[in-house]
Amino acid sequence: MNKSIVITGVSTGIGRDALRLLHSKGFYIFGSVRKEEDATALSKEYPERFTPLVFDVQDHKSVIEASGVVFDKCHVLAGLINNAGVAIPGPLEHLTEEAFERQMDINVKAVRRITNLFLPLLGASKEFKGTPGRIINISSVSGLFSSPFNGAYSISKHALESMTDVYRRELRRYGIKVIAIEPGPIKTNIWQKNLNSLDEFNQTEYYDVLQNANKIIENAEKSAYPVAKISKLIFKCITLKNPKTRYIVHRNKLAFKLMAFYLPNKLVDWLIHKTLGKGEKHRPV
Ligand SMILES: NC(=O)c1ccc[n+]([C@@H]2O[C@H](COP(=O)([O-])OP(=O)(O)OC[C@H]3O[C@@H](n4cnc5c(N)ncnc54)[C@H](OP(=O)(O)O)[C@@H]3O)[C@@H](O)[C@H]2O)c1
User: Fold this and answer.
1) Which residue among the candidates 28, 153, 167, 247 is catalytic per the annotation?
2) Which domains does the chain show, CATH number per domain?
3) 77 lines ligand 1 (CB under 6 A)
4) 214 within ligand 1 shell (Cβ under 6 A)
5) Which uninterrupted H or E stretch holds 230?
6) How far apart are CA 81 and CA 32, in angstroms?
7) Is ligand 1 within 6 A of the CB of residue 52?
8) 197 in helix, strand or coil?
């Protein structure tokens, strides 16, 4: 089996726990971080079989430079885990162009740039000999269901869902499997980063529905799964002979599927309208 994996965004959350689990299973991990201090701390924690890649996914020149070491150290990757991501909430009407572009660049455009960079090591060539690698995109249930006031994020994850399907169909000829993991709430820093993030829109006419935003975030965080749930699934996606093309991870998968795929749009719109004001059901990632 190929034993090297690239994971973006291993400083915290899902990426960090994926590093822990995959490393414990004997994989060599190339993990991306943005800060030198994260690289130093992780290198101390994982003195063997780990190399930090220091880059911001928005700066492709630095991605290419930092990734040179991956090409120097290995010829084949078992997997690329596109995990780095941000959630920038706000009403679509009031999100700045810069904020919207940042959301799209980090969660969508950078995923394509980074995937294309590593494709030769994943086996995208007729000359490639060995076992092709797998691409695992950390999407979200927001890639299947459009949440108001979290629109830019939802749009980015919908685009990532489509990108997953397109790559899977294009790369089939090389045997490269492309999988989307679609988590509901998972306990990570992303929630704290979101607290108070909607305050800047309190002067807008959406004030009435946004005033419960923090309560909504806190409620969602309370019901969140631990990160290990996703790490185990990532391990499965890397090692199963025949993984599924997408995995929803949600406490109430049936209710979620009903809302996302089966109930009439107008009924779902009405349900969202009713529950938003109570600050109980709506969630931002
Ligand atoms: N937590 C959830 O409930 C949930 C649910 C569904 C999907 N997801 C998805 O899971 C993925 C990981 O999120 P998380 O929950 O683990 O959140 P997190 O703890 O905030 O981790 C996000 C990671 O992405 C990195 N990152 C952010 N912007 C970056 C950039 N411009 N360049 C390079 N790295 C960047 C962060 O690095 P820094 O530490 O340097 O910021 C961090 O390592 C995201 O794609 C998210 O959309 C999360």
Assistant:
1) 153
2) 4-276 (3.40.50.720)
3) no
4) no
5) helix 228-239
6) 10
7) no
8) coil
